[in-house]
Amino acid sequence: MRGADCGIRWVGMSLGAVWLRRFRGTIGCHVAGDGPAAWRCGARIWRRRMISKSSIDSVEAGRVLSACGEAARQRGVAVSIAIVDDAGQLLQFGRMDGARAFTVELASRKARVAAAAGVATGVITEMSRQSPGVTSEAAVGAGGMPILHEQKCVGAVGVSGAKPEVDDLIAAAGVAVLAP
Length: 180
Hints:
The chain is α+β, with helices and mostly antiparallel strands.
């Protein structure tokens, strides 16, 4: 883009003084002159409505963590519990006394996979079993469950340290706390 084609025009004047002039809704830069000394850029400014999305916050994540911990205590198992937001970033984490060290990473991974896919990790694992020869890093076993709001994933919980079926039940107990 050149001169009048640019949205914002930068014109180099004596001793580097720069004036800013706004045109038509695009951002563009132009140093006065033609040839190798001319520098241009053109990035469009979008004037449209922003899209908003929902995500769980740390208070809700704390409620899920407490519910999962209580469900694990009722079943007499020691687990690690990870709660992530819609982007898979950790919000809350808990490791019960007696939970083995490897469960820390596995619970976090289950939660991240469930948030990214928007489905329970047990479903992903079962699908990978039905497709022999296909290996998937997403097949982490049962215990990861998405937290859905209006059919959209707003977070996820991952539980590790017990049998896969028990991990799933504990995760479901946590998700149920946020159900309307």
